[in-house]
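Retry 2 of 3 after timeout on previous attempt. Resubmitting C-alpha cells to design endpoint.
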C-alpha cells in the first residue's frame, strides 16, 4: 500500500531536518572561516540506490553535483565493502563539483547488516596545494596536475579510526594542514550525526515504509516540476554572454545556450560555447549541470519542495566535448568558482524570453580573493574571502543589495578576519549607483578596502564583470562594472587584473569593488516614492535620480 499523506509529511520532514542537523554539526566543528562563518559547505541524504532524498539549504554547486558524486563513489566501493563508520572521500573535479578544493565525503547508513541509505557532506577546503595558495589560480595554469592534490574515491575513516597514511599525504600537500584536516574531521562529525539520525528513522518506521515514502515524494516532486514546466510556452530560446577574460591579456570567452521547453521537459544545450581555455578557468560538465538543476528549481518549485532527485528527472543537458562549459581532462579548472552565477545568468538570459516573470536581471559579480602570507610568528596563513555583489531586478521586486543570487555563502565578519590575519578592513560599504536603474532597481554591490599590515602578502584574485556589465532586462539599465584597485602606501592608484596574482608591501590597500546588478523594466516607470526613498538612503545619486529616473522635484 502507498503511504498516507500524513506519514509522508512526517517522514519527509524528519529527513529534511536530519540534513539540516548535519549542516549545523559541520558548521559548529569546522576550523576554517569560509566553512564555519561563510557557509561554504553542503549536506544531504541518499537512499540505498544512491538517489538524493533530502538536502540542507546550502550550496547549489555541491548539491547539484552530489547525485553523480555519490554514484561515482559507489562505483569504486560495492555496498558489501562498506561498513558502519566508513567515510569515503573524493575531490576529483570530473567526479565532484568541478575543482579540487571541494571535498566530498560519504558514509553508509546501516540498520543491522543492511545499508538503508547514505549521508554526504561537502566542504570547500582552504587549500589543496597547487601553484597558488587557495588552489584557484587562473593565469599560467593549463593542466589539473598543477592545481593540487587529486583524490579519487578513497576510504579515509573506518570504525577503527582515520587512515593515518592518507591523512599524512593530505597534510604534506597543503599549505595550512591544521585547517584542512580540521574541516575534514568536521565532515566526519556531520556524517556521524546524519547516519545515526537516519538509522533511527528507519528503525522506528521500518525500511519498507521509509523507502515507500521516499519513492512517493520523489515521484510527487517530479510531477510538481513537470506540471509547472508544462505551463511555460514551448519553444527554443537562445542567449549569448561573454566572460571578460581568463587572465591578463587574454580574450573574452563566449558562452551560449539554447533552452528548449517541450511539454513537461526542459533541455539545456550549450552548442556555440567557445572551446575550453588554456587557463585555470573552465567548467566541468558536472558543475555546469549543477546550475542547470538550480535554474530549473528556481523557475518551478523554489519555495515549495526541498530539492531531491525527483526534481532532476525532467532536466537534460548537452554540451560539445572540450567546450568551455564541458571541459575535459587534463585541462585545469581551479578557477571555476566565479562561473556559478555566470552560468545562471546565461540560462536566465534565455528564459527571460519565455518566462520573464520567473527570472531576474544579471547580478553583481562577486569577488573571491585569497590572501596568503606569514604571521610574525612565522606561521603561514591563508585568508579565503567572499565579497558579495547583489541580485538583479525582478519583474515585480527590486533586486537585493549585497546578497548572492546563486549560493548560500555569506560575507565573513570583518572582526573575525582582523583578529586572525595581519590585515585591516578600512571600508566595507554599498556602492552608490552600482545597481542598474529600472522600474525595479538592481541590487547594489559592495566595496571592501583591505590594508596590508605586513610585508609580502600575496593575492590570488578571482572575479569578472569588469569588461562586460551585468545585463538589465526589458529596458532596465545594466549594472555598474566592477574593478579591483591597488592604493599604494604613497596614495597612488592602479587597476589590477580580475584574475591575476599580486604581492603587496606593508601599508598597501586593495579595494575590491563588485559589479552592480542589472535593473528590470523602464526606469521612468519606477514609482516616484521609490526613487525618493533610494535617493534619501544614498542608494542612488541626485544625478541619476534626475537624468535616468526623471525625478524633477
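Retry 2 succeeded. Sequence:
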Amino acid at each position: 500500500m502507498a503511504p498516507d499523506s500524513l506519514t509522508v509529511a512526517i517522514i519527509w520532514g524528519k529527513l529534511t531536518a536530519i540534513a539540516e542537523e548535519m549542516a549545523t554539526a559541520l558548521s559548529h566543528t569546522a576550523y576554517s572561516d569560509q566553512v564555519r562563518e561563510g557557509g561554504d559547505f553542503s549536506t544531504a541524504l541518499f537512499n540505498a540506490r544512491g538517489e538524493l532524498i533530502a538536502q540542507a539549504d546550502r550550496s547549489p554547486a555541491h548539491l547539484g553535483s552530489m547525485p553523480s558524486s555519490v554514484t561515482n563513489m559507489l562505483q569504486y566501493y560495492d555496498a558489501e565493502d562498506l561498513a558502519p563508520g566508513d567515510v569515503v572521500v573524493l575531490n576529483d573535479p570530473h567526479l565532484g563539483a568541478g575543482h579540487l578544493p571541494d571535498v566530498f565525503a560519504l558514509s553508509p547508513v546501516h540498520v543491522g547488516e543492511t545499508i538503508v541509505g547514505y549521508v554526504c557532506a561537502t566542504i570547500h577546503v582552504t587549500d589543496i596545494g597547487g601553484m597558488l595558495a587557495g588552489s584557484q589560480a587562473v593565469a599560467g595554469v593549463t593542466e589539473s596536475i598543477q592545481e593540487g592534490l587529486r583524490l579519487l574515491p578513497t576510504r579515509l575513516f573506518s570504525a577503527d579510526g582515520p587512515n593515518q597514511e592518507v591523512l599524512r599525504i593530505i597534510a604534506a600537500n597543503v599549505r595550512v594542514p591544521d585547517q584542512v584536516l580540521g574541516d575534514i574531521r568536521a565532515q566526519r562529525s556531520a556524517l556521524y550525526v546524519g547516519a545515526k539520525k537516519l538509522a533511527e528513522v528507519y528503525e522506528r518506521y521500518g525500511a519498507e515504509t521509509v523507502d515507500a515514502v521516499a519513492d512517493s515524494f520523489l515521484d510527487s516532486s517530479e510531477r510538481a516540476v513537470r506540471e509547472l514546466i508544462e505551463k511555460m510556452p514551448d519553444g527554443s530560446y537562445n542567449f549569448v554572454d561573454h566572460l571578460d577574460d581568463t587572465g591578463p591579456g587574454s580574450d573574452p570567452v563566449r558562452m551560449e545556450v539554447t533552452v528548449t521547453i517541450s511539454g513537461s521537459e526542459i533541455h539545456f544545450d550549450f552548442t556555440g560555447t567557445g572551446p575550453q581555455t588554456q587557463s585555470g578557468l573552465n567548467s566541468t560538465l558536472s558543475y555546469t549541470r549543477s546550475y542547470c538543476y538550480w535554474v530549473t528549481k528556481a523557475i518551478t518549485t523554489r519555495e515549495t519542495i526541498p530539492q531531491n532527485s525527483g526534481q532532476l528527472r525532467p532536466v537534460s543537458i548537452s554540451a560539445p566535448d572540450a567546450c568551455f562549459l564541458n571541459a575535459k581532462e587534463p585541462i585545469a579548472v581551479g578557477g571555476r568558482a566565479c562561473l556559478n552565477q555566470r552560468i545562471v545568468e546565461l540560462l536566465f538570459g534565455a528564459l527571460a524570453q519565455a518566462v520573464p516573470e520567473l527570472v531576474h536581471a544579471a547580478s553583481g559579480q562577486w569577488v573571491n580573493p585569497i590572501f596568503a602570507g606569514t604571521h610574525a610568528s612565522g606561521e603561514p596563513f591563508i585568508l579565503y574571502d567572499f565579497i558579495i555583489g547583489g541580485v538583479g531586478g525582478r519583474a515585480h521586486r527590486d533586486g537585493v543589495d549585497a546578497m548572492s543570487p546563486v549560493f548560500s555563502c555569506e560575507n565573513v565578519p570583518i572582526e573575525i578576519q582582523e583578529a586572525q590575519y595581519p590585515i585591516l578592513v578600512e571600508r566595507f560599504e554599498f556602492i552608490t549607483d552600482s545597481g542598474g536603474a529600472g522600474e525595479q532597481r538592481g541590487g547594489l554591490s559592495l566595496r571592501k578596502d583591505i590594508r596590508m599590515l605586513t610585508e609580502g602578502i600575496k593575492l590570488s584574485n578571482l572575479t569578472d564583470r569588469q569588461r562586460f556589465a551585468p545585463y538589465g532586462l526589458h529596458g532596465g539599465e545594466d549594472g555598474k562594472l566592477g574593478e579591483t584597485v591597488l592604493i599604494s602606501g604613497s596614495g597612488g592608484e592602479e587597476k589590477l587584473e580580475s584574475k591575476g596574482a599580486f604581492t603587496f608591501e606593508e601599508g598597501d590597500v586593495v579595494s575590491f569593488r563588485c559589479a552592480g546588478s542589472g535593473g528590470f523594466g523602464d526606469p521612468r516607470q519606477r514609482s516616484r516614492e521609490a526613487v525618493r526613498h533610494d535617493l534619501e538612503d544614498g542608494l542612488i545619486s541626485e544625478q541619476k535620480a534626475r537624468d535616468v529616473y526623471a525625478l524633477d522635484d
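Attempt log closed. The chain has a mean pLDDT of 95.
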